[in-house]
Amino acid sequence: QVQLVESGGGLVQAGGSLRLSCTASRSIFSIDTVSWFRQAPGKEREFVASIGWRGGSTFYADSVKGRFTISRDNIKMTVYLEMPSLQPEDTAVYYCKLDLYSGQTYWGQGTQVTVSS
Q1: Phi and psi for 38 in degrees, rounded to 5?
Q2: How far apart are CA 79 and CA 108, in angstroms?
Q3: Sequence-ordered list of residues with C-beta below 8 angstroms from that of 33, at least 6 positions apart, any chain
Q4: Tens-of-pLDDT digits for all 117 residues of the chain?
């Protein structure tokens, strides 16, 4: 079993920045991809960004492309999401998702990001 712990959320004003972290509870050698999703009140959960664990390939939703940056630290088993220039529409609970090559998937508990105007 793997637990994902997210941190770094909070309340910021528009234009502010946050850095989210997602750390796995143990070392894993079969990680395929780690992703960030978000879910705003009354909306479906949506993809934000992903990173390939081995090659580091990144993908972004159009809504955050050029603004957010996903990165990883393989030693620390941690994935980061740098979020500068936050806007009220970025307000959501942000979730970390880990996909293994076996097909298993794990989700974190989520961290709240609130951007005030």
Answers
A1: -145, 155
A2: 12
A3: 50, 51, 52, 53, 98, 99
A4: 889 999 999 999 999 999 999 999 888 889 999 999 999 999 999 999 999 999 999 999 999 999 999 999 999 999 999 999 999 999 999 999 999 999 999 999 999 999 999
Cβ contact 40:61 at 8 Å: no
What gap in Å lies between CA 62 and CA 100, rounded to an integer? Answer: 25
Contact indicator for 94, 7 with CB cutoff of 8 Å? no
**Two tokens at 109?**
């508990």
89 — phi, psi (to 5°)? -70, -10
Closest CA to 113 of 50, 25, 19: 19
> Which residue type, as a one-letter code, is found at position 44?
E
